[in-house]
Amino acid sequence: MEREANPPPRPLLRPLLSASSSTTSSDFVRNIQAVFKRPRPLGVMPSNLPRAQRILVSQKEGKPVAGGRSGAVAEAVVVASPTDEESSITHPSVSGTLTFEEGRAVAPDCWKGSDGGGDGVGVGTVVMDDCGGLKRADFLTVGDACRRSFACEEGRSSSFDAGSAAVSYEDLKQQEFKPIRSSGMNGQLLHKAEPPPNQHFMAIHQMTRSLASIASSATTMSVNSTSAPRIMSTTYNSHSCRESGSHTDIGESNGNPQLVTRGDCMPNTLGSQASVFTQGSSYTPLTSGIQDQVILEGKGSHAKGNDGDVEPGKVHHLNERSSKGESIFSDVKDSASLTKNSSSHVNSKPPPPSRTEKSHHKKHSDPDAFYKVNGKLYQKLGKIGSGGSSEVHKVIASDCTIYALKKIKLKGRDYPTAYGFCQEIEYLNKLKGKSHIIQLIDYEVTDKTLLEDVMSGINNKKDGRIMNDTYIYMLLEYGEVDLAHMVAQKWKENDGTNWNTDENWLRFYWQQMLLAVNTIHEERIVHSDLKPANFMLVKGSLKLIDFGIAKAIMSDTTNIQRDSQVGTLNYMSPEAFMWNEHDANGNTIKCGRPSDIWSLGCILYQMVYGKTPFADYKTFWAKFKVITDRNHKISYDPLPNIWLIDLMKKCLAWDRNKRWRIPQLLQHPFLVPPMPRELPPSGD
Ligand SMILES: Nc1ncnc2c1ncn2[C@@H]1O[C@H](COP(=O)(O)OP(=O)(O)OP(=O)(O)O)[C@@H](O)[C@H]1O
């Protein structure tokens, strides 16, 4: 419907080329501009929608010098001038005066971040008003992390639409405007901004905004001037290569444009051209060398690097998920490749934004879309899990690395519990650098004294509950899938009935689990809550997560001291149920490393038989009764490999002193099959 309301698509490059060959340079440039002019939709804009305000920027004085610093002073005047596209933008409008001085944009005080320090997050659009046509350059400001450059044209009124009240003052202040004189452009000067050093968030934003407009073929047009930096205009359309795909350089020498056509068809592989595209960007680094790779799923559009091959580790998958309210990015891998050499091009006349673009624009206007840990911003990509005490979110950092962010709300909890949560940080710090343990990248406890108390060993001292809004944020390595899902999937594949034991699968993950638990046991830590959901697969290896109830083993004992009974019933050892009681000999029952071995035995049993050993006992008391009964016999259905049953029995020995330890388990015949006494004759 929306499409029908619009005028027919603008002409593609080929008609332009034939026309321009016989025109003067200024006509020619006008033609180019006409090509990129955005058609205005015919529909009437609803008046009840919130409207972003525009600020008309008119240059008052100071002629910029070609190739040098501007020196121009431009003043921004606030006017209400909504456009069709702005009607969908709901972020708060900002008014004020933007002044360009000495090649810098100086923002008014009212644009400062809420803290006045320019630490906010903001999205804005510079819309170039050019004879009714619009150009735009978007910017995203995230503290110092990202600054988006934008362009203005001399002698023309340009519009500035500041989209967010939290636009960073510092960011705007630091914008540099480099004037570019191009006689072939009717003597217009283009003020171009240098790419800021950190373009990560910008790259995200650029790619986000570009999704809707990048399609399977591309028309790349370069306007070159011998005396000025180049303006690269890249447009993409959904037409087939045959229809539109020309890569044409419009070189300009001595003011005379020259057309150089580089082939008829622009393949999906853009060769040396950039593969991260921006709409309406004035940021044109024109880098050479290795280019980024972007694969747009569901669009049939590929933009690749120089070599044209898609390297798995360097592919950025962009899934449009905005309908779910999530970011449209997912699994952006190998962040370095995203930003390292990314190039962007000017689109002087971008097509109207699609719905996806609009919703994404809204998304970025929302400061709630970010978490801040120790001053660094992480964009939320969606919730990935929640435990008894926490929420875990998938987030993306400014370098495009994906992390899991565990957020624990402490308000209303008693102090011993809060100290326990802080202890998880302590353990994860202790386990830094250990393979098989999820890595803690960063953390923040909003109540500093709480963490200090734990770190200095002063805990469990305070009574009462935490009254203020205190949170623990833990930025963790991101795990793709947990063992619980993998086991469920395996059983689904086997139809839940015909379990043809995949011994190699079992061996691989069993060994990884043993190595993970061995790591913590060597550090005198007992996990106490081992279960399939607490093993995450990270880049092919299993890693242990969730040290929320882990306990350190006292130096003078092999057992841990507990304040309460904990664990997940189906994986809890007899001694965890009977903790602090007295055994037949009058000894106090304590938990230690064997308790974790029991839990591992339950997990192995579940991997083999599809259910935990006590799953058939449904209630707490039924489980309690059977697990604490030393005479209860766990049933083991026959298996082709008797060592497997033996292994489970070694872990699930009721007497904790009879359970095998991890070094022994790592040498168990199931993992290390005994050599056959006699090998068959060779060649037989
Ligand atoms: N690093 C991670 N990567 C990916 N997902 C994770 C990560 N950490 C946790 N999760 C997901 O979040 C869920 C809850 O995390 P976690 O177990 O750490 O929280 P919890 O509140 O301590 O849970 P529980 O109540 O089970 O003890 C996990 O089951 C897992 O699905």
TrEMBL record:
Keywords linked to the UniProt accession: ATP-binding, Kinase, Nucleotide-binding, Serine/threonine-protein kinase, Transferase
Span of domain Protein kinase: 378-671
Taxonomic superkingdom: Eukaryota
Region entry Disordered, spans: 1-28, 236-259, 299-368
Any one GO CC term of the record: kinetochore
Endoplasmic reticulum as UniProt keyword: no
Keyword ATP-binding recorded: yes
Pfam families: Pkinase
Compositional bias (Pro residues): 1-12
Residue numbers binding ATP: 406
Basic and acidic residues bias locations: 240-250, 304-324
GO biological process, one term: protein localization to kinetochore
Biased composition (Low complexity): 13-26
Biased composition (Polar residues): 336-347
Gene Ontology MF annotations: ATP binding; protein serine/threonine kinase activity; protein serine/threonine/tyrosine kinase activity
PANTHER family the record matches: DUAL SPECIFICITY PROTEIN KINASE TTK, MIXED LINEAGE PROTEIN KINASE
Protein name: Serine/threonine-protein kinase Nek1
Source organism phylogeny: Eukaryota, Viridiplantae, Streptophyta, Embryophyta, Tracheophyta
